[in-house]
Amino acid sequence: MADQTLPDASIHVGGGSRLLAFLAYLLGPLGWVIALLFGRKDPFVGFHVRQSISLFVTLFVGVLAWVAIAYLSALVPYFGPLIGFALFALVISLAISCVILWIMGMIGALRGRYRVLPLVGQRASKWLGGTTGSVPPTAEVMAEAT
């Protein structure tokens, strides 16, 4: 997906908002709490908190599913452990993908961009609500937040 930046060049995301959005990615659940405490009404911070949560949930659910399947498949003689090891390769690829998306999110937050993360970003709007989809907030929404 193409990089989505602010629709109006006159809209400026402040340094405090960028820092809070960056912390939402960097510190995980603690960063979400900090960002929401200090930037609750800021749509930029909220956008990146939702993106970070969806990334974290995707990784957590993927690892949890692997653990459950590997545990159950271990009960099958001979081939069960092989299934668990084979699925571990998928978990590693998921983890590598999430690290790449995590870095992309942090860079987008520091640059002041509304970048919807590929693969997981669209789910954030379904799971958590808000404008995380294709339309970044307009100048009117940004003006209301200040």
Question: Biggest sheet, open or closed, and with what strands and sense?
Answer: none
User: What percentage of amino acids are in beta strands?
Assistant: under 5%
Mean pLDDT: 80
Number of domain units: 1
Helix content: 55-70%
Shape: elongated
What does this structure look like?
- With 146 residues, the chain is mostly helical.
- The chain has one domain (15-145).
- 68% of the residues lie in helices and 0% in strands.
- It is built from 6 helices and no strands.
- It is elongated and about 60 Å long.
- It starts with 14 loop residues before the first helix and ends with a helix.
Which descriptors would you attach to this protein?
single chain; mainly alpha
Task: Describe the structure concisely for a colleague.
The chain has helices at residues 15-26, 29-38, 43-73, 80-111, 121-128, 139-145.
Topology, element by element:
Blueprint: H1 15-26, H2 29-38, H3 43-73, H4 80-111, H5 121-128, H6 139-145
Helix pairs in contact: 1-2, 1-3, 1-4, 2-3, 3-4, 3-5
